[in-house]
Every structure is written in C-alpha cells, then in structure tokens.
Amino acid sequence: VNFFTKVNRASNLGDVICIPYSEWESMYHSQEWDACLSWMDPEPLRLAPSNSFRFFNQQVSDFGGCAPGWEYFVDIIAPLSVSHAEQLRGMCDVPTEKWRVLLNGTDTSYFRPGVKIPGKMIWASSHDRGLHWLLELFPQIKKAVPHAELHIFYNCNGLRVFASWGPQDI
Q1: In whole angstroms, what is the distance from residue 83 CA to residue 90 CA?
Q2: pTM
C-alpha cells in the first residue's frame, strides 16, 4: 500500500509506505491501477485509467477545493452521512447511482450499557466540520433544554483562527 500524506520523506510502516503527497503525480502518471481511493480531494483520480475503480471519499461540506470537471473521473463518491449526501448532491452533477454513504460516524451500540447524562452533548471533530453551526444553534438548544451542556474535544491547533472569526465569516 502506498499512502500519500503529509510527511517530509518516505517511510515504511510494515506493508504501508508513507510517501510525501507532493510525489503522487510523478510516481503514478503512467501506471495501471485496479482501484484508487482519494480522500477529500479527487484530483489524484484524474490520472487513474478509466478502467480502474475510482473512489472519492468526501469529508468536507462542499466541493470548493475540487478542480472543475472532477465528476468525470470519479466512479463512486462517498460522503459521511445521509444528511451530508443530501447537502452535497445539490452542489454537483454526479448521478445518483454513483453515491454511497460511508456512515462515518459512531455506532452507539458498542457503548451500551452506558450511563446517559441528560443534556450532555459532545462534539469530537475538527472545528471546520460544522462546529460553527452547532454553536450558532446552541442558544436554541439551551432554550429548549436548559440543563444542556456542550463539551468539545479536538486537538486545538488552528483554533486561534477559528476564535478570530466573526459572524461575517460563518
């Protein structure tokens, strides 16, 4: 497995080779692939031959970072939930038969029996994945459930920028 990611130099992790993301195009420009998966950026799939399986896992809320024409070199697009798919469908021309919801969430059955704490909410994702919507709605949630609490868990790198956002940025 060749894993192109944010590393400074190639390194081995058993059967997985981590390679600097910047090298994907030069390494794979003319090779044949059985299947290709790209996460949050369909651009690497542009080089894949049309007879290979090209899978695009979209984790963000729009296609603003995608180059025009990306829909033509993606065989399957997989958003992370049904509501995410509904939101994204109106933003592109990918036919319905190419959509597969990935259900990138938590199966709460793994955590039962558990003690539920009425009103306790947890956000455990990056701040750019809809936290602004939750914070915007939280006063309404608090009005409906006065004892509601919101606990946010995530690595705080980048939160200074998030904290400096004003209403015009959301």
Answers
A1: 12
A2: 0.59
